[in-house]
Amino acid sequence: MATEVVVPTLGESITEATVGEWLKQPGEAVAADEPIASLETDKVSVEVPSPVAGVMGEHAVKVGDTVQVGALLATVGEGGAGAAPAAPAASAPAPAAPAQPEQPSGDAAAALSPSVRRAVLEHGVDPATIKGTGKDGRLTKEDVAAAASSKPAATPAATPSPAQPAAGGGRKEERVKMTRLRQTIAKRLKEAQNTAAMLTTFNDVDMTAVIEARAKYKDLFEKKHGVRLGFMGFFVKAATMALKDIPSVNASIEGDEIVYHDYADISVAVSAPNGLVVPVIRDAQDLSVAGIEKTIGDFGRRAKDGSLKMDEMKGGTFTISNGGVFGSLMSTPIINPPQSAVLGLHRIEERPVVVNGQVVVRPMMYLALSYDHRLIDGREAVTFLVALKNAIEDPTRILIDL
Predict the structure, then answer these.
(1) Residue from 126, 311, 373, 394 carrying the catalytic annotation
(2) Does the annotation mark 377 as catalytic?
(3) What is the reported pLDDT for 249?
(4) Is the bond preceding residue 338 a cis peptide, omega within 30 degrees?
């Protein structure tokens, strides 16, 4: 008897999702609670586990289909790991067996997502020789790209292939449907531009004191708290102090009312296999630098393995986006409605500055605050950035709440 697998409850107000990829194919053995499919919602990817152990049945929907909560995804038939060979034997059609060798790496190819399969074919690498960094050791596109770039011997053999179409004047295009997450990001960012009166104010900050404090205490910090001491802990804590002094930066507009928050729920962008996600540090004003670093570290690990929950992405009163990790020198970030402001951090680079009448070289970072001018005046935006700058340049202020 087959057990039905349906679309699970995805969170408050979320009624549908898009099928991102199938992690199990018909006829494969499935363990209880083993992920069989990945669904993409407006905020994050969600893996659907099998409710029972058995053999994967037919898929009821295809990759890219939109499915409602409670809709049938697939069935799992009775049997365990030992029953898996019986399924191919019963479906005696010979073409099913030869289909396997056509995959880039034999049996391992079945576990690859469509995007990873395509990357494997494009780069001409053997996925069996690559160590996966995704959940349960699965390969990601980044793993394939990294393996291809670290394989110099393959380059000479690969060059004649692309050269031939170029000589013949041929050019290729590929059309890939936008994921639900990317569609939602595009929609929300455009809505923000259409709704808010956005303006960006800049400042710069001397990172000398924070860099010295981090170098001095990072080993003791990691030994005591079990997490690395980064720069985000300082910036989040300094931001909560500045938000307390300038409450309009932490407020939002609802209709004809301004909603002021006596708490700071800070949204921070972290990397996930399918792009950036923005979980929320709740009540960041009550956390120490260590507590903030632990929370961000936990978000980063769970974003990588796809176990962040929907509720952890909701809300947020203020956002911090760190483009500096990708090398950005300066940017004008877009606010995340209904929030009214977003702080952009950028790369640290040594620049000549004047200190006490002398030209010295200091590690400097540009700060950018984009804000909704309907709610936040220029004076308030500048005051916020100056308060943040003062706290970072003299971290003792963070300790004594000054």
Answers:
(1) 373
(2) yes
(3) 96
(4) yes
